[in-house]
Backbone:
């Protein structure tokens, strides 16, 4: 049985990856320190014979007994308010954490895939974003802690690939959503859905003309899975190119949730990208991948999940 280590296992994407690899017949070792994750996301795997969990901060030396065939490094705060609240941890997990995991991969002769992000393109001047665009990032801005950690992560991964001949894969993930997102993580989908469920007005930052392109989690996991087993070592965008402005998106959510609230406008966060859409030509070519789940269907599935949360969870405020 092949063995895979998944960091960030108690988070949104990490927990879905654990499910996928278990279903594909792997032995999965999940690792997390719960800084932004939740035990609940992997509770259903607790007694699974092919799942084990190690509570550990990946910025500290990592020791794994036995063989490892694959590593997926997904540990990192991922929402703007998380990484603004824990900026140093964000820089450390992208840099020191990635270094530890590359060292582990080298030691175990394992293939490693690292989770990069569309944020490496910053506030992009090229649209849609292709993998050969170098990006427009404000190094010293508040978002820089995440963007630069991820840019460093890509650089050190390519250095291990070139210098040590390590088998590496880099996925540049564009805004992904679905069940198990944290209601209070501040990202736009949980924010709007929480507001709709609590009967509050929807908060649009700025004038709402900024755009995003939202990918359903199952499509994202499929893209990541295909990339891991491809022979392509350079970064690949995985996301859904169907772009929408935040203002139109708020209207869609109000329709879906049948709420009668209004929208209220708040300040746009510093360095909030004005536009974002993945060019997925490369993923189509090298992975034969494209998303299959449209926003209407994906948002319905996500809303069903948020509706199952208890009143306590719905009203719990962390920020
Ligand atoms: P998440 O916050 O739900 O999950 C991240 C997990 O990593 C959490 O469980 C957290 O506790 C864990 N973690 C953080 N620092 C750690 C450390 N030092 N040691 C061990 N565990 C640690 O976020 P997510 O949306 O699931 O994102 C997962 C990965 O995908 C991140 O690397 C993120 O940058 C990347 N990504 C996500 C998106 C998206 O739209 N969801 C977009 C681009 C990139
Ligand atoms: N946003 C918003 N209202 C909210 C939360 C977010 O208008 O309550 C905006 C945010 O400013 C950004 C977009 O929605 O322009 C997507 O934000 P998110 O945090 O989900 O992702 P990211 O900015 O990292 O793409």
Residues:
């Amino acid at each position: 049985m092949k063995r895979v280590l998944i960091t960030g296992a108690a988070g949104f994407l990490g927990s879905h990856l654990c499910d996928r690899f278990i279903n594909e017949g792997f032995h999965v070792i999940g690792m997390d320190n719960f800084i932004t994750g939740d035990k609940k996301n992997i509770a259903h795997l607790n007694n699974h014979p092919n799942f084990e969990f190690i509570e550990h901060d990946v910025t500290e030396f990592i020791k794994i007994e036995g063989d490892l065939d694959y590593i997926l490094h997904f540990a990192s705060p991922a929402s703007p308010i998380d990484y603004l609240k824990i900026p140093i941890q964000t820089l450390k997990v992208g840099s020191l954490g990635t270094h530890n995991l590359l060292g582990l991969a080298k030691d175990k002769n394992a293939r490693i895939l690292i989770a990069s992000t569309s944020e490496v393109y910053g506030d992009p001047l090229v649209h849609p974003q292709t993998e050969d665009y170098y990006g427009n990032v404000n190094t010293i801005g508040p978002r820089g802690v995440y963007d630069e950690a991820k840019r460093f992560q890509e650089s050190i991964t390519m250095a291990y690939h070139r210098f040590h001949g390590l088998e590496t894969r880099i996925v540049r993930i564009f805004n992904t959503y679905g069940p198990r997102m944290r209601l209070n993580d501040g990202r736009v989908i949980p924010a709007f859905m929480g507001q709709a469920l609590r009967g509050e007005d929807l908060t649009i930052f700025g004038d709402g003309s900024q755009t995003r392109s939202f990918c359903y989690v199952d499509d994202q996991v499929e893209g990541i899975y295909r990339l891991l087993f491809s022979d392509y070592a350079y970064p690949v965008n995985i996301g859904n190119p169907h772009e929408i402005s935040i203002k139109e998106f708020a209207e869609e959510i109000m329709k879906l949730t049948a709420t009668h609230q209004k929208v209220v406008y708040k300040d746009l966060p510093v360095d909030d990208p004005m536009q974002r859409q993945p060019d997925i030509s490369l993923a189509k070519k090298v992975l034969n991948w494209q998303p299959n789940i449209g926003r209407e269907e994906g948002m319905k599935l996500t809303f069903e999940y948020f509706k199952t949360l208890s009143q306590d969870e719905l009203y719990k405020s962390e920020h």
Q: What stands out?
A: The pocket of uridine-5'-diphosphate (ligand 2) is lined by residues 79-80, 175, 187-188, 191, 203-205, 210, 212, 246, 268-269, 272 (CB under 6 Å).
